[in-house]
Specification:
Number of strands: 4
Number of helices: 4
Strand content: 5-15%
Strand order of the largest sheet: 3-2-1-4
Amino acid sequence: MSQLKPLQGAKPISVADNPVLRDLMATNWLMTHGANATQPAVSDDAPENTYAQVKVDGKVVATLYNGGSSTMTNAAAAKIGKLEDPPGLSGPDLAQWRADNYAKLLGGTVEKASTAITQSQWTPRQSNSATYSRDQLDAAFQAMLAEGQKAAVQLQSSYLASRAQPGTSADISA
């Protein structure tokens, strides 16, 4: 701590005064609040999206999903190393290719899940990228500020309420 020096000449600025940062925050707020979502998105690695499992000695070491993604144990990842996917594969075809290669490299077996789908049944996820109008970004930024102020007021009121209860304060100077 003795190496710390005060910052000279720095002035705090408001996000509202930085248009790029303000729009980035507003865009993120819109995306997280589902401004364009018609239905809640299910994660690629949700159990209902399981394509197959790779098992070694009866233990699951990797799980493949219909979209082609996978999760695995650290030990399995270390044994597999860097495995390059073939170009052009996606969805269930990629999941099958990975499952077969994982099983071969790990000395295991592939067990296809009841939730596995075929390539023709698979619908790729739509891109999350969206373009918002100036009015949408401005409204989102104002909503974000209002949400933050409301949360701060609630936090402050709960803190003040806890201080008013007998036996909740402590002398920290001892």
